Structures are given as structure tokens and as C-alpha cells.
Amino acid sequence: MRVAEASNPLSHPLDQVCRAPLRVLALTKYGDKAASVRQRFLQFRSYLEREGFQLETSPLLDNSYLEKTFLSHRVSPTHLATCLVRRFQALCRQRRADILWVQKELFPFLPGTFERALLWRNLPLIFDYDDAIFHQYDQHRYPLVRKLLGRKLEPLLRSADLVICGNAYLRSYAEHFSSNVEIVPTVLDVAVYSPGPVQSAAGRTTIGWIGSPSTWKYVEPLVPLLREVAEELDLRVRIVGAGARAPKLPRFEILDWSEHAEIDMIRGMDIGIMPLPDEPWARGKCGYKLIQYMACGLPVVASPVGVNTEIVEQGVNGFLADTPADWLNAIRRLASDIPLSREMGRRGRAKVEKVYSIQVHGPRLAKMFRQLALRTVAR
After folding, report:
1. Domains: count for the chain
2. Domain enclosing residue 133, as ranges
3. For residue 301, which phi and psi values (nearest 5 degrees)?
4. Which of 168, 190, 252, 377 is the one with CA 20 to 30 A from 141?
5. Segment 95-106 mean pLDDT
6. What is the b/e burial string over 166-193, where b = at least 16 CB atoms within 10 angstroms of the residue's CB?
């Protein structure tokens, strides 16, 4: 890290202590088509710049890889090899960075000790994860993978100067290995997300879900129930991002996900849903769908799993539904009681503004970076 002379670094603003801008190399897992990269890295750029940091991102798996996987197309070994070579090239650029910001892991299925060895410059390290990625290894179906990689994340977590997690479940794991762990939810810009048109009492209510082909499996068990309640109450079911896996059924509207149309697709819903199984991997989810729905003024219905129980306040901004009967009752009530639906949507929007917005967490994360830089200078 480039340091200017200062008798007491902690008493000086960052731009007086360090020759700004300090260069942050973000080694992300995916390109900018991935919501986790946009929401947990790229949208913080302006806040970091105000504190004297310059952000460069380098993905392991590019947008072409994501597009092929979303479309269930085969990714060629040559393409994967190219991605791996680019990651090694990015690691060679450590000499031009002042801080490393790693998302999830450097390489899938590479032991953590080797990953740590690849960070040869011993720069200040920030480790960020918003999924229970440790369960990808410690609960793998093959015993050999569990044995060799079950503790894969530990070396990076132990080495990190700061660990940023998306929720309390992820923090509880990280705290076994790091003394500096912070929760930063996966947030959004409330100046960009806004409530849609007020639901008309005479219009057809739309139940909506947004996701990806890989997360559609969580909705599939609800399809018969959604079909039943849609026919019973003359509702529309809007499915965004499931791709070819979504069923073509009466009253079901299947839409392809689009970054540019995403918000309007949500604003065209009246009720947002987020079903999840009560499983370890699902407990690590950060509830971003719920935050999107609520930012657009929608009441929500969600499974009482993981962070969902923090985001959804039962009977206040939505309902937590555990059984099929719970789901039916919640949807029926919201679809039939429009004033209640509107009020819950208003409360949900207010909660996002207060707890889950970039306006709240942007300055907070930039302050974490600033404090890390100052601590490093003071060593």
C-alpha cells in the first residue's frame, strides 16, 4: 500500500495518509450479469470512490458462461480453461493492487491452502460471500470431496482482514475463523426501485416470482397450489427467469429475465413469493427476491427459512407460510383484501428504505474499507 508520511496515520483523512486512489482488485466469481456481483460489488463503486478507492473487477466465470448455464447449454472445456487462465492472469496483477476483495472462492474445488498461497503479495484481504458455499463442500454427496474440501474456506477466512457476510447464518460460520466479521445484506438502490401502479379492485391480481433456472426448483412444489388458487380467484401467475423449466399452464405468464426490464416486471406484480426448503444451503440465502418485491411496494409470502424470518414480519409486511394451507390462506387473504395488501406493501417499502438500501449500506461499507486501509497504514 502506498503511504504518505504521517506522524499519526489514524488522525489524518485517508487521502492525506495514502496516495489516493487506493486500488481495490475485486476477484468476483461471475461477470456483471450475475446479481450477486452487481449488488454486492459494482453498485458500491461510487461510495468507494468518494472514500478514495478505485475499484477494478475481474470475474472468474464470464457472462458467456452464465448465459450458457441459464439456457442449460453445455459449456465447453476450452471455455472453462480460458476462464481459469484469466483468473491466473488476474492474480498476477496483485502487484498493481492495494486491497484484494475476494468473492466466495478463487477457484472451485481447489483446496483452500492452495488458494491462500496464490495470494502471494499478502495484501489486505476482504472476503465476501452471500451463499452457504461451505456446504457445497462439507455436504457434498461424495465422501472424498467432503474429506478433501470440507474445510476449503477456512484458510481464506483465517487470512482475511475483514469478512463480509450476507446474513447471520453465514456470519455464524465465519466467526469460527475470523474475529472481524460484518453483515452487509444484499441491498438495492431505492431511488431506482419504486412501487408500481396501485392495484385496482377490478383488475386481475398477479402473483409473481423472479429468479433463475437454478432456483426454479424451489417453486416447482408450489405449482399445483398456485394453479389451484389462480383458477379459484381468477389470478395471474407471473414467472420471471425460470426459462424452459417453467410449465406452460393456463393463467401462467412466463417471462425471460432481462436486466433492463427486471424492475418493471416486478412492478407488474401484486404479490411476491419466495418459497424455500428448510435445508442448510437455503438457510444461507440472503432474501434478495423479497427485498426486490418489497422495494416495489409488494406484500410478500415466503417460507420461514433463514433470513426470510428477519425480512418478513408476520402480518406486517407479508406472511410466512410453512405448509400448503399456510400458502393458500396467505395468497387468498392478500388477493381478496386489497387495502391490507397495499398497507403491507407500504410497510415493506419503508423497511427496505431503512434496512436494505444502498443508501444505508453504501457509506457503511465504504467506511469499513477506509478503516481497513488506516489500520494497515498504522501497522
Report:
1. 2
2. 9-186+358-378
3. -130, 125
4. 168
5. 95
6. bbebbbebbeebbebbebbbbbbebeeb
